[in-house]
Amino acid sequence: MTAAVEARGLVKEFEKGRRTIWQRLRREPDRRTTFRAVDGIDLTVETGEIFGLLGPNGAGKTTTMKMLATLLIPTAGTIRVLGIDPTKDARAVRARLGAMLSGERSLYWKLTARENLEYYAALYHVPPKETKDRIDACLRAVKLLDRADDYVERYSTGMRQRLALARALLPDPPLVILDEPTVGLDPQAARDLRDRVRELQRQGRTVLLTTHYMEEADQLCDRVAIIDHGQIVALDSPAALKRRIRAEDVVRLEIGTSGDDAPLLERLAASASIARSERRNGTLSVTAHCASAREFVPAAFDAVQHAGATLQHVEVVPVSLEDVFLSLTGRALRE
Amino acid sequence: MTDAFTRADLRALIASARASLRVMRRYPTQWIGQIFWPVLLPAVWVLIGQAYSGGGDPRAMDAFAARSGTTGITVFIFVGYAMYMWLSTLLWGPGTELRRNQMTGTLEAIFLTPVSRLVPLFGPTLTTVIWTAFQLGVMSIAVWLLFGIVLPWQGALLSLLVVVASLPAMYAVGALFAASVLKFGETGPIVQFVRGMLSLLCGITFPIVMLPGWAQAVATAMPPTYVVASMRDALLKDASPLDLLPSVLILFALALVFGVLAITVFRVLERSARRTGMLGRY
């Protein structure tokens, strides 16, 4: 079976800085530089899976999605979307692809949901005889059929996101790509949208999504690629990724200390792997990966006491994709 | 699959115009503004013209007729301004619509569909025909109410036919400059410049024989020159359809030239936007 998406050595460079008309007229040297938003990504998304690109803002997720969706031309590398090269036959890719890239911003707020979908159905070349049934089916799929004739401006953010998803489903696409589908949604609306995404998979569609919410990637995706600075730093199922950091528990400590951090961190490191430490306003925050919190926490108390510091807060949490990202990059996802 | 314009694209073009019309209907106060400008702007020039001609001094009127072929200053100027308003709508329309879509985020959503790129370029601005028809109606009533001139119905009908025949050429001119949005993210400065130049060259408020020879030569390559001249001939000189045929044929030829130019420029700039990421910037 053909992979839904294949990318090899994908690179996207953008120009940094600007060159004014005045500078051009005066023939001043071009001081613009380039930066790589995507830096050699290799990716295969299998048919029928939910695949997630997880990374912080600016990691290159959206740029990757835009290249797959034909909105951007790659600087280098090859892409196959449903077996088609989007740089050679962009129109064929667009006809088979359902994409939700700018969420609620992709809608006309002065039109009703049905009017929006009628417009986009025409742009997707849905045959006129099928349009009404297709629109009803898409609205039903996102649970908006009863609000079909309301203006979009009267919708909540969550409803607009769902309508944007309905728009992406209009061409009945085998592949759906979603860029940060739940960003800005309240927990209930986000949960609701995730249910819709799972439903897409049950219908036999492939879903490729980006997110910077680790829980979302963990709960929703069959496989996750962790992306940072335009490169994939790890790619596997969420469970396999979490096993990589060889820890059963994650312990987060907040320590009140005015002395030197180094000896304290050294003592803590004797019984756990210190994934991250940060001092802010007299408080040292430490994230430690350990085999057993039961053994590490008493050792941490001793270390803090020995350093003449105060343990202000202890939190034991299960290993998450956030910890995987931390162990791979030394930074938190939201930094 | 090629970039050919298909029957499905034509349906999309109509759907695009319908969606744009629906949005327009939901901002009813816009129509009020459209009542005043088409009356006030030309009325000021008519009054200036009347003042300069000494309130209709025969010698002044003869001098004007020698240059323009008519003594009907009022209709001459109102026709020129009808052209100006339409030109403004067409030059601003497609670019502004593209820019609005770019800013609201719908441009990317449209470009994600397999529809021909000519649809987002021309579709939403088809509704400008409605604006133009409304403005022409307002101007006709204003000429009658303010200056007591009733336009001959045959001339008015012929003028409307000229307007319809000039649609492809005029849309092509609008589209040519609209494409600049994909490169620069705005259309304002270019449109201001082009509108100013066309107003000067195409004889909006004066006969083009007043221009230097080289400027008159440039004017002959501009569609608005033929539209405004044909409308004046129809309304002021009782021109027959046969008299206007050469101008209409030239308008069709110019539609072809500007159309090909607009599509080529749009395709080049669209590719550039897909390289730079300009489609999604706002």
Spans of chain B of at least 5 consecutive residues whose pLDDT stays below 50 are none
Encode the helix/strand succession of chain B as letters. HHHHHHHHHHHHH
- Mean pLDDT of chain A, to the nearest integer, reads 90
CATH C-level label of the largest domain in chain A: Alpha Beta
Lateral arrangement of strands in the main beta sheet of chain A: 5-6-7-3-8-9
Rg of chain A, rounded, reads 24 Å
Beta-strand share of residues of chain B: under 5%
> What percent of residues of chain A adopt helix (DSSP H or I)?
25-40%
Rg over alpha carbons of chain B: 20 Å
Number of domains of chain A: 2
Please report the number of helical segments of chain B.
13
Question: Strand tally of chain B, please?
Answer: 0
Mean pLDDT of chain B: 85
Biggest sheet character of chain A: 6 strands, mixed
Tally the structural domains of chain B: 1
Secondary-structure-derived class of chain A = alpha/beta
CATH topology of the largest domain in chain A: Rossmann fold
Count of discrete alpha- or pi-helical segments spanning 4 or more residues of chain A:
12
Main beta sheet of chain B: none
* Class by alpha and beta content of chain B: mainly alpha
Give the helix/strand layout.
The complex is a heterodimer of chains A (335) and B (282).
Chain A: E1 5-16, H1 21-25, E2 33-45, E3 50-54, H2 61-68, E4 76-81, H3 90-96, E5 97-100, H4 113-123, H5 128-141, H6 157-169, E6 175-179, H7 187-202, E7 206-211, H8 214-220, E8 223-228, E9 231-236, H9 238-243, E10 249-256, H10 261-269, E11 273-280, E12 283-290, H11 293-306, E13 310-318, H12 321-329
Parallel strand pairs in A: 3-7, 3-8, 5-6, 6-7
Antiparallel strand pairs in A: 1-2, 1-4, 8-9, 10-12, 10-13, 11-12
Chain B: H1 7-25, H2 30-52, H3 58-68, H4 73-104, H5 106-111, H6 118-122, H7 128-147, H8 153-178, H9 181-184, H10 188-201, H11 213-219, H12 223-236, H13 241-276
Helix pairs in contact in B: 2-4, 2-7, 4-7, 4-8, 4-10, 4-12, 8-12, 8-13, 12-13
